[in-house]
Amino acid sequence: YAAKRSGGGSTFYTPELDDTLLSRATLIAQLRRAVEEGDGLDLAFQPKFDLRSRRFFGVEALIRWRHPAHNLLLPDRFITLAEETGLITSLDRWVLRQAASQRRRWLARGVDLDIALNVSPHSLLEGDLAGDVAGLVRELGLMPAGLTIEVTEGALMRDPERAAEVLRRLRDESGIRVAIDDFGTGYSSLAYLKRLPVDEVKIDRVFVKDMVAEPRDASIVRTIIELGHNLGLAVVAEGVEHAEALDRLSAMGCDQAQGFHLGRPSPASMLVELVEGAGGAAGTSPEPAMAAR
Ligand code: C2E
Ligand code: MG
Ligand code: MG
Ligand code: MG
User: Which stretches of sequence are listed as region Disordered (predicted)?
Assistant: First the structure.
């Protein structure tokens, strides 16, 4: 595994290596327990900013796992494992319930923030996501839900007919908005993009992060914005880390933006302070840049 080489050529172990010593079986057992009991799982919320009104209008819910022995684990460390073991369906359903409950609590305090959540292909295509969401929305008295479901191109292309059917029901029965996440990195057919019930495309951050210095990246971003607008979709840029990128995106007519420059993923309580203006946009850094990466 990735033991770092020191200058002298001998290897030494980084603290992260502790994690790799955990056997896969142990990690799976711990993840199963966490998902089944919701114990140790947490949501961080990252603000989404509207470039026209210059206001925060929503947040994206991102799963975190306070692992018993390893601080905070980010999704890159366990989502694939959850997908491989089938735990992802329960995990995504847990996130859905937490996000909807958070929306309910915020509304009760007069805070109207759309909450976006990520849904894996499995969770979208297996089981009855549309029925579950409708039940939850009814139970919590949220209609329209004020929720956005983010799916990747891969999820849509795996079974476009079924995906379209589920997304259509989510929209019709619960007023869910639908976003295509990480847009530009997958292989979505433009023909399907036209036919799928989608409200928003999120430009993947690989194109956004260097767009100020790299004309080709800027061209890709501009092209996605134009494509999205021609299809009547809202376009969101993710991974906005600097003011310059934000300005360029504004000038290009991008609708919304998300990224460390605007706000890092944070606990729900800090989010409200951020959107209500305390502290300003940049500079809130409850999650250190390198948290458990
Ligand atoms: P995503 O949905 O594309 O989420 C955006 C990721 O980019 C988040 O990482 C966020 O912290 C990070 N990010 C935001 N702004 C910036 C920035 O300016 N610079 C950089 N370098 N990164 C930024 P995170 O939280 O580690 O999540 C990674 C991925 O894990 C997500 O990508 C999503 O695909 C997946 N994920 C997160 N939560 C869930 C969940 O509840 N269910 C499922 N199925 N997947 C999830
Ligand atoms: Mg997302
Ligand atoms: Mg994304
Ligand atoms: Mg992603």
Answer: 279-293
Ligand 1 mutation target, pool 73, 79, 290, most atoms within 8 A of CB? 79
Say if the ipTM goes beyond 0.85: yes
pTM: 0.89
- The answer to whether residues 156 and 192 touch, using CB atoms and an 8 Å cutoff, is yes
Q: Which amino acid is at 88?
A: I
Taking only the tens place, the pLDDT of each residue in 110-153 is 999 999 999 999 999 999 999 999 999 999 999 899 999 999 98
**CA distance to 9, 38, 97, 179, 262, per residue, from 42 (Å):** 40, 8, 12, 22, 21
- Inter-CA distances, 208 with 37, 55, 202, 243, 254, Å: 38, 20, 11, 12, 12
Neighbours of 40 (CB within 10 A): 16
Give the distance (Å) from ligand 3 centre to CA of residue 186. Answer: 11
Rounded CA separation 242/258 (Å): 11
